[in-house]
Recover the amino acids of this structure.
């Protein structure tokens, strides 16, 4: 007798753990794709941290030389770059990147 029960995520109980499918080739491909996604995520985190540190260094250098805490024209340039490339989500991403480097306004 086959089971038509579903797990917590609405997938069949016989689905390969974490893939949402019982089809072996599809499950293997999902695992393969997710491995690459995880690699990209690690790289993004490293780049995020490096960018934030560099941004803090720019701000500290600017303020130590008597400059302003922020250069709004630079922030607008970054916001526009991300918005142009990624749309509304790009704007949100850019705001998070800016905040990571300078802190909240």
């Amino acid at each position: 007798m086959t089971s038509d029960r579903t797990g917590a995520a609405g997938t069949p109980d016989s689905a390969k753990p974490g893939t949402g499918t019982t089809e072996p080739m599809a499950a293997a491909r999902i695992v393969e794709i997710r491995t690459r996604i995880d690699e990209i995520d690690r790289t993004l985190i490293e780049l995020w941290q490096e960018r934030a540190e560099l941004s803090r260094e720019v701000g500290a250098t600017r303020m130590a030389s008597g400059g302003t805490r922020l250069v709004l024209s630079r922030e607008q340039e970054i916001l526009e770059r991300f918005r142009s490339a990624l749309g509304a989500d790009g704007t949100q991403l850019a705001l998070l990147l800016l905040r990571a480097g300078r802190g909240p306004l």
